[in-house]
What we know:
This protein has helices at about 10-15, 30-40, 95-105, 125-130, 165-170, 185-200, 210-220, 240-255; strands spanning about 5-10, 45-55, 55-65, 80-85, 110-115, 135-140, 145-150, 175-180, 205-210, 225-230, 235. By secondary structure, the chain is α+β, with helices and mostly antiparallel strands.
Amino acid sequence: MTHxxxxxxxxxxxxxxxxxxxxxxxxxxxYKGKNKWxxxxxxxxxxxxxxxxxxxxxxxxxxxxxxxxxxxVHADGYIIIHCLWVSAVGKGYGTQLLQKCIxxxxxxxxxxxxxxxxxxxxxxxxxxxxxxxQFQLVATAPFDFELMVYPFSEDVELPYFxxxxxxxxxxxxxxxxxxxxxxxxxxxxxxxxxxAASKLDISVDLIEIQSRDELxxxxxxxxxxxxxxxxxxxxxxxxxxxxxVYKKLQTLLEEPV
Length: 257
């Protein structure tokens, strides 16, 4: 008989089971950076929950109070889901993990649960699951970002995005990477940018985002944890191959000043 267990991680379990993403590369800088970040965030009541079936990790969800979230959204009093991923669809894994989050949020007296989606990338959860569970689309932002929300009552204020996305981009002329380590793939994504820039002899400014306030002020997209900007244009908010980065940068180099 199949045995499914929901495991809420803490520092001790993290050292034993490990985080979900990049678990096949536990010596990589991205994996180590993620684990270090998780240890820090556990102190701020972040929840990192894995679904284990017959001793195998088959999915996980990560969520936290909006006040500590890595997403650029005004949502005080809400829980923000950072990530939700499952190894197979149609088995109810996603529903179990999402219900765990909703139950936690209700028990803690929150206004509701919110999540950032984007159909153009796998770096955000797919909105299909949330639509199935009565989440509603309440806001959109440039680059195909959508804010899905499940409020627990009709009279609560709904979360919302900032509106000055364009102004945030125009302040960066040099090739600039803004990043934090909520996602372990940020390290590989950064390496690909640096490799492509080196081929084109372009210097790179690397900004390590240190706080929620800095994230809310500087990030040019709601995703928050990874942005690449050149000549006031967004190159990417997720991992690209070196070749893709090279082509994008080369095109911008050829544009008249």
